[in-house]
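Sample intake — Large ribosomal subunit protein mL43
Collected from: Drosophila albomicans
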Amino acid sequence: MSNSHLFLKSGFPRAPLQNGLGRYVCQLQRITLKFCKNNGSSRGMRDFIENHLVDFAKENPGIVVYVKPRRHRTPVLVAEYLNGQREWLNCRNNSQSEISKWIDLLKTQNGSSSSLRLRKMWHTDVPSIQGPWTPFLLRSPEAQNQTYPSREISTPLDVPQSATEKLIELFKQQKLEAAGEGGVDGVLEQKRAE
């Protein structure tokens, strides 16, 4: 088990600026492509810049793209987000397609996912002022001084009659009425007359 999480900032997962409730706002503000003009490890970065950078800039006008050549250094992608976070990615010996995939990944992130140790998996901006629920929350005040077992509390509740019980009761009433008017034969004769 590593202790690298001890040095990360801790916080809560949050949707930036309530993103997704209205229109979507891309959280990537600027991306910097650092590379060497001669070094072999920067070949993929140079290929991406020559072939795909202009198309990427046209498709994403809200993202500022900087190209920074540096001598004898490894290629690097630096992404800066709206919340002020920076993501640094080493692209040594990466191909053109790998770099475009990394840029797409950086474009869809919000900047705080990889550099934040989560304290909880959920968070609310408006916590309840009522506090947590307890079993004693909605109890009657008379029940506080009650001694148990108690006959007053153990009486059956006034529960409405179920549909099955109501049908059984109606059947018994009809049976009694039929017995009073001449039995089952009297009920059948009445039905035939109607």
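Post-analysis note: The two ends are 87 Å apart (CA to CA).
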